[in-house]
Amino acid sequence: MSDTPVLPDGYEFSADTARVDAARVHGWLSSDAYWATGRPREQHERAMAHSLNFGVYDTASGEQVAYARVVTDQALFAWLADVYVDPAVRGKGIGTAFAGRIRDHLVPLGVRRILLATRDAHGVYAKAGFRPLDRPEQWMVHTPVG
Predict the structure, then answer these.
(1) Closest among 15, 16, 26 to 82, alpha carbons compared
(2) Neighbouring C-beta atoms of residue 105, cutoff 10 Å
(3) Per-residue model confidence (pLDDT) at position 146
(4) Could you tell me which of 23, 40, 117, 144 has the fewest CB atoms within 10 Å of its CB?
(5) Cβ–Cβ contacts within 10 Å for residue 54, how many?
(6) Average pLDDT in the 48-75 region?
(7) What integer pLDDT is reported at residue 83 of this predicted model?
(8) What are the beta bridge partners of residue 78?
(9) Does residue 2 carry a pLDDT above 60?
(10) Residues 95/52, Cβ–Cβ less than 8 Å
(11) 54 forms bridges with which residues in the sheet?
């Protein structure tokens, strides 16, 4: 898409799961992400194994600076989850560009709806074309006990 925000110079997007630094990502999420604090490593690895995984990398060092995963049927629906940008590189536009690149990666699959949930990054996602649900009263959730 032509409206995809461009990553800042020195950073690159990848959809190659083999490049993901799983230990680094687990460290970020389990210790610094409000939605995943305390998540066990095994559970995180299982989630990664059943998702499309994305990263942003420093082109000079190859170090991963951002991560996200998408749960999808790869035909109609996708859930963008576990989006995390290393605090050391926040404020450079990486999050917005990253969300836009992921969105565009899903377009050829025919995905018609990409959902996400956020407590505090609405502005980041709005710049990548996300908006509140049109009819939130139609959506429901079940939270299993245990």
Answers:
(1) 26
(2) 17
(3) 67
(4) 144
(5) 25
(6) 97
(7) 97
(8) 72, 114
(9) no
(10) no
(11) 68
